[in-house]
Design goal:
KIF15 isoform 4; mainly alpha; single chain; coiled coil
Length: 127
């Protein structure tokens, strides 16, 4: 009876050991899968960090370039404003000149409508 009990105990222990061994292997497999997944995630993270760093460098370069372009456009705009003001002053001066010429023309026209000849009385004396 002790042998039978021992045999039964041994069988139950072996079954328990096999179950635990199976569970241990299963857990080990899950752990390996998690490590592999973690490795992949770390690689992805490193790749994303590199991409992010590259994009930051590109954005910094583009922002610098756009800032320079903006400064150039502002300078060009100021130059164009100055040129426009100068042209407006020239236009005003030309308008004044045209007005003076028009007035002069009107005066000349009025003067030319008067007879251009005058009768001169000359006495002829014979000697």
């Amino acid at each position: 009876s002790v042998k039978l009990e021992y045999s039964s105990f041994k069988t139950s222990q072996e079954k328990e050991f096999n179950k635990l061994s199976e569970r241990h292997m299963h857990v080990q497999l899950q752990l390996d899968n998690l490590r592999l997944e973690n490795e992949k995630l770390l690689e992805s993270k490193a790749c994303l960090q590199d991409s992010y760093d590259n994009l930051q460098e590109i954005m910094k370069f583009e922002i610098d370039q756009l800032s320079r372009n903006l400064q150039n456009f502002k300078k060009e705009n100021e130059t164009l404003k100055s040129d426009l003001n100068n042209l407006m002053e020239l236009l005003e001066a030309e308008k004044e000149r045209n007005n003076k010429l028009s007035l002069q023309f009107e005066e000349d026209k009025e003067n030319s409508s008067k007879p251009w000849y005058t009768v001169v009385n000359v006495e002829l004396t014979s000697s």
